[in-house]
Amino acid sequence: MLSGNTALARPLVIGTISDEPVKEIRAFLPFAKYLAKQLETFGIDDGKVVIARDIDHMASLINKGEVDLFVDSPLVALAIIGKTGCRLLARRWKKGIAQYHSVVFVRQDSDIDSVHDLTGRIVAFEESYSSSGHLLPRITMERMGVPLTQLLNLQSNVPTKQAGYVFSGDDESTMEWVLRGRVDAGAMSMANFENRVATNWKELKIILKTAGIPRHSVSISSEISGPLSSAIEAVLFTMQDSEDGQSVLDSFENTTKFDPIPKETMALLDLFQIPVLALVGEE
Question: Which domain of life is it from (predicted)?
Fold first, then answer.
């Protein structure tokens, strides 16, 4: 357990999930070093970054005490919380965005006008652990009464009274597959949809906009002591108030700030806890 005992000096370890570890370590390391420097009185002597390959890998690292803070999308964080007992600590305004929505969209000339029309059709999600490109839109659709089942490929038959889905690998492919008619619908964050739609606005229509959730979140291991947890919060919530802190925020993927997760947002995330764990169990 990390406490205020300097005799047990050790690094503060921040983790995230990515298939691009070198890129993520480069982005996260200055942030980890900054936090460590501010927490020296708690025996923190360095800041380190660990990149996991998937949710189960990250959960294992946290349970073994090898990761103290987990920074990622909130629905992925809910899966981690369910497997480790850690808790949400803060909201991260990644690239200046506090909250985001996901959208499900189809071709403008499609006869699909709502997600309920997707029965017997195919939806493209980004990848299994993507909050905006899979978890949020899928859970929303299923809560609306649209059951989904994963297909082996685009040629697979969709089960009766269900919608089928496939993973495209990235948002660009999702949009291209919809535009070219390879799939009937696609899902991604509203921000990514607006960025990628470009001159294709007239060719697409949105049939679902989900509720908003934090763009990113910080979770903390249950092994970290109360005083240190409070100190980490204080450092996070005041980074923008100092020149050094602001510089680190700017370099950390243009993070605007960290702040507490609003109560109404926490209540919404609570509704997603069980569905997220159920979906993660499918993987």
Answer: Bacteria
